[in-house]
Amino acid sequence: MGKQQKLKEVPLGAVQAFSETSGDSLEVYLPNKSATGNAVLYSGSESGASGIDYRRLQEVGVQTMLIAVEDLASCEEALERELGNLMLDPTVEPQKKAMCAQQVGVNLARDMLCGGSPAADIERASTLFNSLLVAMMGDPAVATSLLSMSAHHRTTASHLFAVSVLSMMLAQEAFDGDEVQMHDVAMAGMLHDLGKTSIDPAILNKVEPLTADEINLIRQHPVESIRLLGGDANVDVNICRMILEHHERYDGMGYPVGVAGEDISIGGRILAITDSFHAMIGRRDYRTALTPVEAMRVMRSQVGKQFDPNLFAAWERVLAGGVVAEFKPVLLNDDTDEVGTGYHADHRKPKKKPPVSRRSDRKTVHGQIQMACIATGTLHREYVARELATYPVVDLSRAGACLESIVPMYRGEVVSVRLNVGDSPQWVRGVVRWCRRNAASSFGYRMGVQFLHRLAPEEAHSRHPVVAMMSEQNALMPAS
C-alpha cells in the first residue's frame, strides 16, 4: 500500500454488495489493531472484492473493511442498489443488515444536506425506508442493532438518519406496526433539520449565549425545511406537518406557532421525543453529551410539558425492548424528583432581548374592522390559490397589521392584502412575520403581516414564492 493512499472504513456488507453488482475491482484491507496500526491488504485488485470469503470473515467477527477513498462512491452506490435484496435475505444477520442500512442512510442524509438533487434524494429516502420497514418488521433484532448504533452518532447526517430510525421504532410501538405511519415519520425525521442548512454554521455551533436574533433565526428552521422542499410530490402534507411541528411542545410553549396537546400532529409529537433524546446523547461544541440515563431523567421531568405523556410511555417501552448495552441503564426505575427545563440542542440561554423598534404608530381596533387577503405564497400545496378571505384586525399601521386567523400561517408566507383607500380598493403585497396560537381568541391564532409594496389589481392573485429566513430586526409584534 502506498503511503499516500487514504483508506475508508465501510461495513462488510457494503463490500459484498459491491462485489455482487459491479464488475470493477478494488483493493480491500483489514483493519489492524496491532501496535503498528497499519492496514493489512486482504484482497488485491486482481481478485478484488469477489474473491473474499465473506462467511468466514463473519464467523471470526469481522464487521468492517477498508477500501481506498477513490473507490468509496462506487461501493456506496452498489450497496444502495442492493439494499432492498439484502434486507429480504434471511441468511444475512440482523447486525449486518443494520450496518448496511446505517451506511446507506447516513450517505443519503449527507447528500441531502449538500443540496445536490433534492427530488431524487427524497425518492431515494422513500425507497430506503420501505426496505428498512421490511427488515424491521421481519426481525426485531434489526431495530435493536440500529438503536445501538444511534448512540454513536458524530455528524449532522448521522443525526438525521438516527432520528428517522428512532421515530420509526416509536411509531411502530405507538401505531402497532402501521407501516404507512412508520414510513411517513421516518421521512419527516430525515428532513426535519434540512432548514438548518440555511443558517450560518457559526451560529449553530456557537459556544456563547445566542443573541435574540440568532435564536429567532434558529427557530425558523422547521418552516425553512418546508420551503426548501418546494412542494415535492414525495413529501405529502402529513409529512410536512410533522416537520413543521417537531419543536412544538405539548403545553403550547413551543415553536413556530405554539400549537398544543393533540392539536400537534402525532408525528410531530413523536419527532419531539426522538429528536430531543438523540440531541441530548450527542456531543455539541457548546456542551458535553448526556448519557441515555441522564437524557431520560431530563425528559421525564418534561412529560406533559414538552412531551406527550402517552407517547413518552411508549418511548420508554421502546428502550426497554431494545436490550442494548448503551441503553440498559435506562430500564432502571428512576423516581427522581429532579425538575429540569425543556432541553434540546437549539435551546441555549439567549441574551436579553432588546425592545422591538416600531417604525410607525399603530391603531388598536380589536376586530372592529376586517382585512381581505389572498394567500399567494404558501408552504402547503393545497393552500395555493386560496380564495379571498377576511381576517379581523387587532391593530394596524402604515407598515403592517396584526390579524386574527382560524388557521396558522407561517413566517415567510405571502399574502395579497386589499385596503380600502378612498373610492377604490388598493392592493399591497404582505409577508407573514410571525404567527402564534392565541387560546383566548375564538379564532385560534394571531399573525403579524408586514406590508411590502403596492400591487396592480391583476397581480393580486399571482403566485409568489415563500420568503426565505428573515432577521428579527423590525419584525412586527402585537401592540400591548
- Overall, the morphology is elongated
Report the C-alpha radius of gyration, rounded: 26 Å
The CATH topology of the largest domain, please?
Answer: Hypothetical protein af1432
| Average pLDDT number | 82
| Element string (H = helix, E = strand) | EHEEHEHHHHHHHHHHHHHEEEEEEE
Largest sheet, in brief, is: 6 strands, antiparallel, barrel
The counted number of beta strands is: 11
Give the neighbour order of strands across the main sheet. Answer: 6-7-8-11-10-9
Provide the domain count: 3
State the CATH architecture of the largest domain. Orthogonal Bundle
CATH class descriptor name of the largest domain: Mainly Alpha
Helix content: 25-40%
Q: How would you name the CATH homologous superfamily of the largest domain? A: Hypothetical protein af1432
| Classification by helices and strands | alpha+beta
Spatial gap, N to C terminus? 72 Å
Strand content: 15-25%
Return residue spans where pLDDT drops below 50 for at least 5 consecutive residues.
328-343, 474-480
Put simply, the count of helices is: 15
Description:
The protein is of the alpha+beta class. It has three domains: 1-76, no CATH class; 93-331, Hypothetical protein af1432 (Orthogonal Bundle), CATH 1.10.3210; 363-459, Beta Barrel (Thrombin, subunit H). It contains 15 helices and eleven strands. Strands 6-7-8-11-10-9 form a six-stranded antiparallel beta barrel. Strand 9 (414-421) and strand 10 form a beta hairpin. Helix 4 (94-114) packs antiparallel against helix 5 (118-138), helix 5 (118-138) crosses helix 8 and helix 6 (140-149) packs antiparallel against helix 7. The model is unreliable at 328-343 and 474-480 (pLDDT under 50).
